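Incident review: delayed structure delivery

Summary: a single-chain prediction request sat in the queue longer than the usual turnaround. Root cause was a stuck worker, restarted by the on-call engineer. No data loss occurred. The affected request and its eventual output are reproduced below so the record is complete for anyone auditing the incident later.

Affected input:
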Amino acid sequence: MPEWPADIPFFTSKSGYRHSGPDGHILRSDMDVGPAKRRRRTSAAPEPFAGKIDRLSQAQLAAFKAFYRVALADGVFSFDATDPLTGETRRYAFDGPYQVGVHSNKVDATLSANLEILP
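Output delivered after worker restart:
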């Protein structure tokens, strides 16, 4: 299992941190009469996570791109990383493409992405 590179901070920006509860694990069936019935589809569902890394140097950005392309096969594989809020090691996977922007200092990069915390 790939691990997040130690020389790249893992989505530490507090302004970009969003963690939601599990999604897609409840099946809802509308009834002809009365309230809809709901049941658990599975007990293990991924949790949406969005994060941002501020002030990545060009070397760190290049290291991230190499990790994403080679170790994760362009986001196909999951990886282990330390949760920035709890400090525990969890398994993550990218949920779509990452975005790179220019930091306000016009030298460093900002990276943001949507991920899933896997059960």
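Verification: Strands lie at 18-19, 26-29, 37-40, 47-56, 79-82, 89-94, 99-102, 109-118.
Action items: add queue-age alerting; document worker restart procedure.
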